[in-house]
Every structure is written in C-alpha cells, then in structure tokens.
Write a structure and sequence with these properties.
two-stranded antiparallel ribbon, TIM Barrel, about 15% strand, alpha/beta, 12 helices, 8-stranded parallel beta sheet
Amino acid sequence: MFKGSIVAIVTPFKNNRFDEKAYGDLIEWHISQGTHGIVPCGTTGEASTLDYEEHYRVIEVAIKAANKRIPVIAGTGANSTDEAIEITKKAKELGADGALIVTPYYNKPTQEGLYRHYKAVAEAVDIPIVLYNVPGRTAVNMLPATVARLTECKNIVAIKEATGDMKQASELIRLCSDRMSVISGDDFTNLPLLSLGGKGAISVTANISPKDMAEMFNAWQGGDITKAREIHYRLEPLNTSMFIETNPIPVKTALALMGKIEEEFRLPLCEMSKANKEKLQGVLKNAGII
C-alpha cells in the first residue's frame, strides 16, 4: 500500500509557532520533485514537542496540501495505548491515509505488551497502520516474531524498520513480507533493504534531496539497479550528515540554509554547534544543494 520515497517531513516553526505557509510550500515542492508520500508528526517532525492542538493542525495542513495527490501517513504514536488510540482516531477523522505508530517509549513494554498495544489500536481505529520500530529512540526493540503475530490484524499494513540491524530486517522480511510491507527507517539502509525485499523508505534525507531519493526508488522499481546504486552512493554523504547531531537538528538547519524554513527548534532541541554546522554546509555545497 505504501512504498517508495516517503518523506518524514520537518515541522517548520516561526516565532515558536507552526509555520503553515512554509509547510505548505515544502509539500508542494515534494510533490513536484516526485516524493511518493508524506509523514507529518514523526520524529523528524518534532511531534514530541507539539501540543494536541498543534499536532492535529500539522496533520490537517498536510492532508489539505497533499490533496490526495500522494498519501499522508500521520504520526500518531504515544507511550499510552489510550492516547495512541485517541490521536489515531483524530487522524482518521481529519482524512489521513494511514497512521505511523511508534513503539511505546520510556515505559519499555514486553513483547506481549507491544503486541497488545498495537492490536488494541488496530481494533479501535479502522485505518491502515504502519508499525514503527526504532529502539535507539524508544529503548525497546519489537522483534520479528512479534511483528509476525501482528500481521493477523488486517489493517496493519507495513512497518518502518529503523533498527539499523540488517540481520533483523532480513528475518522480518522473511517472516512478514507476504502480509505487510517492510519500509526502511534509516537512510543508509534504503538500498540494502530493497535488495532484501523492502518496499521503500520513510526518509530524513528526502527532506533536502527529494528528487534523488524518489529517482533511486523509481530506478530500482524499473529494474535499473546500476542507476539506483549510483544514486545511493551519491546520497551517502547527505545521509551521514543528517545525523551528525540529533535528528531533526541537521535536516532543519539544512533546509534553513536552503532558504526553505526558519532555523528554529523547540527546546530541548537547539541549534547546531558551529563546527558541525560548518561540516554540514560543506556537504551541502559538495552535493550542489546550496
């Protein structure tokens, strides 16, 4: 259902408020560049610093701007199952095409707890659901066997695999790819995951290089492995630079240097160090982005 280059889009701020104009312009740019889908209110969208009203407004603006031209998969995860259900219901009401639901963070549920959490959300809200496993952020790793159990829920259609562990990704695809799509959640794994049977990526790098990212997936889909590999290696310095500080600090800084948003974050995130910003500028200049 969901495939290709799906951007984990930033949330631009201006004077500590959601910058709706810049956001709409970003989405128009993405569509013109060939991006295949949009995820508002994910990790890169600083969802954890948005209040409920802002969270819903960011999703609503994304849906209206995309206008059914490409799917919008709203970030609706929480570390409380009831809260995740509430946010997911609201995303469906607003018209989202799907929901990206991160594993509950901080409270470190067991594998059984993870299973029950996602099953409860899937049964409560009839919307296509993308699981999101990112243990580096959440302190819990949802194992392939648990994901396989969740494929019994017909509206759980995909997983964003962000462990960076290709052995786990391979096992996940072996167990589940006939019943759900496996999507990369780490840009350095985008092409390797495709070679194992993955279907796309929810990408940070796509924020700043949407055309290349979309063309890499299009090339792979069209059987042009050489072109896909060439683009992958061209993007690698950008992929690395997006994580020289905590995401989304580098990508928002890059977009500010490109003139697309203000260089503004919500505490506890803050601006990059001078040394890292200089490194980032060098990578962007070498890539021809600025």
